[in-house]
Amino acid sequence: MIRNKKILTGLDHSQYEHPFDQKALKALKATPGLSMVGNFIAKHMIEKVYTVQYTGSNLKVTKDNYPKIYEYLQYACEILDMKKVPDLYIQWGYDINACTVGAENPIIILNSGLIDLCDDDEIMFVIGHECGHVKSNHMLYHMMGK
Q1: Which residues contact 93 (CB under 8 A, 6 or more apart)?
Q2: β-pair partners for 59
Q3: How far is CA 100 from CA 2, 59, 112, 142, in A?
Q4: How far apart are CA 145 and CA 42, in angstroms?
Q5: How many helices (H) and strands (E) are present in the chain, helices listed first?
Q6: What DSSP letter does each residue of 87-126 carry, written as one string?
Q7: 64 vs 15, 68, 70, 71, CA distance in Å?
Q8: How far apart are the C-alpha atoms of 48 and 43, rounded to whole Å?
Q9: Residue 6 gets which letter from DSSP?
């Protein structure tokens, strides 16, 4: 259930990232040309593969088909002061798991086992966690590492 709404206006991802994470991201960003090459590869290759894989085989969450989960997504993005709400898909699977892929147009994927076995607060937590990855742009560096 959505309770007291506290918006973190102006939240910068550096305010919640672990110092080791910040250090690793700073080192990657400081590597000459890496960000440019990584962005190009992610946008024109890896992200397209992930987009086809996840959007073609899974159920997109909308306000019409999963209104509660869609509300959680909007709420998490509002709390984290995210201007763009990423697409969210449900993937069939027994696992209680979620992930986020894509750098320019991130997609959040929740396994159906998570929806079936977790309560509303746990689902909201997982969506918020994945939105934190989007805000920190972790997917670009994760995709580059694959």
Answers
A1: 111, 112, 113
A2: 90
A3: 23, 15, 15, 10
A4: 11
A5: 7, 4
A6: EEEEE--SS--EEEE-SSS-EEEEEHHHHHHS-HHHHHHH
A7: 34, 9, 9, 11
A8: 7
A9: -
CA distance 30 to 75: 34
> 108 pairs with which residues across the strands?
88, 100
Q: What is the pTM of this model?
A: 0.73
The stretch 37-66 carries a mean pLDDT of 75
Q: Record the tokens describing residue 118, joined without a space.
A: 């977790």
Reported as a single tens digit per residue, the pLDDT across 102-146 is 777 889 999 999 999 999 999 999 999 999 989 887 665 655 554
For 73, counting Cβ atoms within 10 Å of its Cβ (0-12 exposed, 13-18 middle, 19+ buried), the class is buried
